[in-house]
Amino acid sequence: MARRRQIYEGKAKILYEGPEPGTLIQYFKDDATAFNAQKKGTISGKGVLNNRISEHIFTLLGLIGVPTHFIRRLNMREQLIRQVEIIPIEVVVRNVAAGSISTRLGIEEGTQLPRTIIEYYYKDDALGDPMITDEHIAAFGWAGQEEMHDIADLAIRVNDFLCGLFAGIGIRLIDFKLEFGRVWDNDYPRIILADEISPDGCRLWDMQTNEKLDKDRFRRDLGGEVEAYQEVARRLGLLPEGADGAVLDLEKHRLSKGK
Ligand code: UDP
């Protein structure tokens, strides 16, 4: 069989041509990077967990009417997605101060923000993803006015939903990053949620202990990365109770249940 065509390779994922026009296959790697790829590593089993966690969250978002690129999960590391024109903006939603907002504005990590803040960053590794405003987005035509309205609206809906979802499993959603894409329906452009939602792009703190259950474990050399990602999956009900470190249990469990 001919090797399928690779469309794009990012830091944590690879995109391959999909089985039908307008589709792609999103492959989740174990590679991890931080600080604009100055720090590189591998978190063994991360790709499997992120594929499953992102599938779960995108499916739930679809059920509440948030349009997403997710079609279905194909196997442990791959999912079928809709091809989109990616909007070159990283949308960061913050509920609690941490990371760059704490450093930049001198706000202690863990401080509840007076209101949810949405920030935009221009997706450009060579430039280190600089922060931008609506003005830059409009001036350089990265997205239209109406599209930006839809993006902000969707980001808030996703935040409200995720805050509740995570609060229900004892996790505080500190902040997260979203990416959006444009699809064309009968010559009419529409914004849908793309990329992934996983502990790679979220800050998730245990509500009781403030323990970090996300990529900050890797960024800050705290160790226990895969265990933290597993804990998130377990609380979301995606791992069999009592799973103890065997990431692949996830797949065995599902296969044995014929799902
Ligand atoms: N984030 C991300 N990709 C990026 C930058 C940030 O997924 O390229 C996520 C990050 O995991 C965190 C949120 O966006 O949940 C806010 O990140 P921040 O601006 O604090 O940057 P960082 O401290 O990660 O450099």
Automatic annotation (TrEMBL):
Its EC number is 6.3.2.6. Residues 6-235 form the SAICAR synthetase/ADE2 N-terminal domain. PANTHER family: MULTIFUNCTIONAL PROTEIN ADE2, SI:DKEY-6E2.2. Coiled coil: none annotated. It comes from Sphingomonas psychrolutea. NCBIfam families: purC (TIGR00081). This is Phosphoribosylaminoimidazole-succinocarboxamide synthase. SUPFAM superfamilies: SAICAR synthase-like.
